[in-house]
Fold this sequence. Notes:
The chain is built from no helices and 25 strands. With 282 residues, it is mainly beta.
Amino acid sequence: QYTVNLALPEIKANDLRCPVVPASLSFNPYNTRNSGFGVGWELRLSQYDADKQVIALSSGETFKVTGSSSTDPTRLLMAEQKIESFHFHRDTPNRYRIVHKSGVVEILGREGDLFLPQSIYSVEGHEVSLRYLPFNNGISRLHTVTDAQGSTLLEINLPTSAVEILLRPDGTPGGGLARFEMKLRNSGSGNEVYEVVLPTADASWRFTYKKVNGLLCITEVKTPVGGHETIVYAGVGHSFPGNARAPLPRVWKHQIRPGFKQPMLEVHYAYDNSELPGSSNN
């Protein structure tokens, strides 16, 4: 599969006294909804889906809640969590708490159909607040991030056919403003992000998509420095047991043209269909 993660400048709050708010734009073809950033795209924040009992961290890690601690009933446990890099607590029916090993604490409250961070505290107790706006069908999107001094560090707006992301990377009032723009077009399947414009002049990421087994997949990427990637999908895809749903798309060929007179890199992927069509890979 082919996914994208574009890191934005870190948001450093409270006169650089922390917490640092990680910010990145990510695309995953299995994310079929539009949460305010275009189909498949999201600003990666920690979140908890209480209905599915799945917690996803801003780092990209995802776990299924499988029980609670016998010594601390508020602490929720995940059988797949082998390294305790964080603890997850249910303080009240409408408030969850993520305590990271680093000492950073995230307070999650209900925003639409998910629990999302409303406050983040550094190990020293400094705070940033996150505010959301309703977007569509129970979905809430992040609107602002402010620190304890009332400085707006991040603001997200939705002008026509675009998503505007305004950042103050140094975290100071009146500091330098970085503007990112995600340009959208309606493809029939929903709003596609076809370009992410960077704050520097004439620099952007450009994307081309196609539907593969009902999922929106990236087939071409052009980088801000002149690189060009081509992704080719082939075969029936990875099948589910009993063909419960459409097979997952899989990449057959990935071509990378770095530019600057560097040679092209081409990678091919082969799959073993001997046991069950589309079931496994080598």
